[in-house]
Design a protein that fits this description.
Elements: H1 4-7, H2 33-43, E1 55-58, H3 65-79, E2 83-89, H4 96-108, H5 119-133, E3 136-142, H6 145-149, H7 153-161, H8 163-166, E4 172-178, H9 191-197, E5 200-203, H10 209-223, H11 231-244, H12 247-263, H13 271-281
Parallel strand pairs: 1-4, 1-5, 2-3, 3-4
């Protein structure tokens, strides 16, 4: 029989554990102002009915690419209705039908029928909705390298970027996000698709140690009660995060450290919690 104490610890350290999650969108994105400004500029034609300029966000994991795009998308949704952002994780949606279905679901508001409808029919429905509502679609293809591995990138980009040929006045812009620093799209895309894409890069360099400290400190203040993460523990997390070059490592170390302290009935996280979790994460 499960005891109540196993489900609900008497030691409560947490205010908002979501602040340690990878999909958490804070109210401010630190140290990515330049990238956000460039993204805003490149998507801005969509606010007036034009096609957003294609963009590639490039950087190693944990450098704020996905977070920046999702923050931008939340602001777009909050402030206007003309440009409709759609996020697609290509690691899980890497076939042509899966990508088009994901776009259809987010724009139409419900999933497509389970069978009996082609991707071209889905695009026809999208086009009808776009003309009816006078909207422009902005699609983020995150982890776009998986479309290359699955050999679907040419067809998907062709269908999206040249939708206007079969459906006049229907415009779709794309943001491609990749963890592969040296990804060369010219080796994977047909010349016609490459020409339609005409994308500019926005680089996302690794965070400096001082930046990591300020980002994680803000998350700590949002997530847990004062004193739960002592200064020396946070410094250790910053060090390990900087060594890895991946902010998600730091967030995971903090989350698991707090969970262990709470489980053991302690009021704060210890250095050994972090070192043990870091060792486990690296093996």
């Amino acid at each position: 029989m499960i005891k109540k104490s196993d489900l609900f610890s008497e030691t409560r350290l947490i205010k908002n554990m979501d602040a340690f999650e990878l999909d958490y969108i804070p109210d401010q994105i630190l140290f990515r102002e330049q990238q956000l400004s460039e993204l805003c500029f490149r998507v801005s034609p969509g606010f007036n009915g034009g096609r957003p300029m294609s963009t590639i966000c490039r950087g190693q994991p944990g450098t704020g690419k996905t977070l920046s795009v999702k923050y931008l998308f939340s602001e777009i949704e909050r402030t206007q209705k003309r440009l409709v952002p759609v996020y697609v994780n290509c690691q899980t949606h890497n076939t042509t039908y899966a990508v088009i279905s994901r776009i259809y679901q987010q724009v139409i508001g419900n999933p497509p029928p389970r069978s009996g409808i082609s991707r071209y029919s889905l695009l026809d429905c999208l086009a009808f909705k776009m003309r009816q509502k006078k909207i422009v679609i902005l699609v983020c293809l995150d982890n776009v390298e998986y479309l290359i591995y699955n050999k679907t990138i040419n067809e998907i980009l062709h269908l999206l970027l040249r939708m206007y040929q079969s459906h006049p006045d229907c415009r779709i812009g794309v943001i491609l996000v990749t963890n592969v620093i040296d990804l060369d799209l010219s080796k994977s895309l047909d010349q016609s698709v490459l020409s339609s894409l005409s994308a500019d890069d926005i680089p996302f360099p690794p965070y400096a140690a001082e930046e990591i400290h300020k980002i994680l400190l803000k998350r700590v203040n949002q997530a847990v009660l004062p004193g739960v993460i002592p200064a020396e523990v946070l410094e250790l997390v910053v060090q390990k995060t900087h060594e890895a070059g991946d902010l998600s490592i730091g967030l995971d170390l903090l989350k698991r450290g707090v969970q262990k302290a709470e489980r053991n009935g302690r009021s704060s996280v210890r250095k050994e919690d972090i070192l043990l979790n870091y060792r486990d994460a690296r093996h």
